[in-house]
Amino acid sequence: MKKFLFFALLATGLTMAHPVDAQVGVQVNLGVQPIWGPAGYDRADYYFMPDIDTYYDVNRRQFIYNAGDRWVHASALPPRYRNYDLYNGYKVVVNDRSPYIHDNNYRSKYANHPHEKQTVIRDSREEKYYRIKEHPMHDQWQRTHSGDRGNRNNRNDHNDRNGHHEDRH
């Protein structure tokens, strides 16, 4: 009977420890956040840009904007926003599933909200962002952490001078 209790407790402990590890991994997505994104967030699923009523899906690297009666998912902003400066535009981090479906809520909440100046990842001096290849401190960080090479450093995507995404393969 004692052996049975021991193994039952051991099995319970193992199954309880595993979900905690999985949960921690979901909470951080620093490696995929663009350098024009706001600094200070270990996790960001979407950015809402109230100035242009557009969302950015961080994990899929896609802009989501309204085109009449439908939401368009694209790797670049539409031509009407070609001059929009992603580095200086105000962004709200939204960790909600498909926030554009509730666009009226986000628009009414942030449309007239005072926009504080935000530090973007490119300008942040927090070392956690240096692993992002496009960060200005990446090369220096890479030399001092040469043994810590992850898949995040092997990205083939780049941003132009306004922070707009372009694929290069």
Characterize this entry briefly.
24% of the residues lie in helices and 17% in strands.
Would you write up a description of this structure?
Strands 4-3-2-1-5 form a 5-stranded antiparallel beta sheet, with no helix packed on it. The chain has a two-stranded antiparallel sheet with strand order 6-7. It has helices spanning 2-26, 103-110, 138-144; strands at residues 46-49, 54-57, 62-67, 70-74, 92-94, 157-159, 165-167. With 169 residues, it is α+β, with helices and mostly antiparallel strands. The longest helix is centred in the N-terminal third of the chain and has 25 residues, at 2-26. A hairpin with a 4-residue loop joins strand 2 (54-57) and strand 3 (62-67).
Average per-residue pLDDT, rounded, comes to 78
Strand order of the largest sheet: 4-3-2-1-5
Q: What is the terminal-to-terminal distance?
A: 62 Å
- Helix-strand pattern: HEEEEEHHEE
Structural class: alpha+beta
Q: Indicate the radius of gyration in whole angstroms.
A: 20 Å
Proportion of helical residues: 10-25%
